[in-house]
């Protein structure tokens, strides 16, 4: 592990240890925030009992559908917009301010169109993730070295071979970054949507536990999300670093 990795581990471990001490010493009331070790125990018992399995499965399924839709739509739209400079100039202001739009104001409309269920939640998750992928696709295509494209033309490569052998490998780091951001935004969109639009899922379960003063279940599910997203982000970060190292060789 690099020194930066050790530093991150020390900072996170120190913060958790400090929180544990403050909670155990009564500085933070247990009715407000249980100690991290208590949260971990509650999470273990919740997962072992299977009481949250259905909610976890539903949320992960919604996130998976939103991520797939975001990556595919964002990539295709990015390639299409990159090929049309005038359209891109017209859309640039909208893309720059896209995340200033509060998507949740549209949830009544989405319920009317898609009905109750997973569809409007997946749509909101997709709306959160798609533009991150689109913008990074545009950035990746913008940064393909012209010398590579000229070399492809000199060797008589057709558009398909140029795309597969030159453009995609060159833009891969940006596409990966877009996919990584799309995953993060989809998690945010889906779980937040479940708070207000669903009768199941992790977001709904957290809100239900909050309304019924069930701190043990609420904090256990919150800890589950934090651990899941942290592990997923660490895996993607390691994968991205290996791609970058391979490109430098």
TrEMBL record:
Superkingdom of source: Bacteria
Locations listed in the record: Cell membrane
Keyword Zinc-finger: no
Chain segments annotated as transmembrane: 63-84, 96-115, 121-141, 182-206, 218-239
GO biological process, one term: transmembrane transport
Designated name of the protein: ABC transporter permease subunit
SUPFAM superfamilies listed in its UniProt record: MetI-like (SSF161098)
Domain ABC transmembrane type-1: 56-236
Family membership noted in the UniProt record: Belongs to the binding-protein-dependent transport system permease family.
Keyword vocabulary terms for this entry: Cell membrane, Membrane, Plasmid, Transmembrane, Transmembrane helix, Transport
Matching Gene3D superfamilies: MetI-like
Keyword Transport belongs to the record: yes
GO cellular component, one term: plasma membrane
Topology with respect to the bilayer: Multi-pass membrane protein
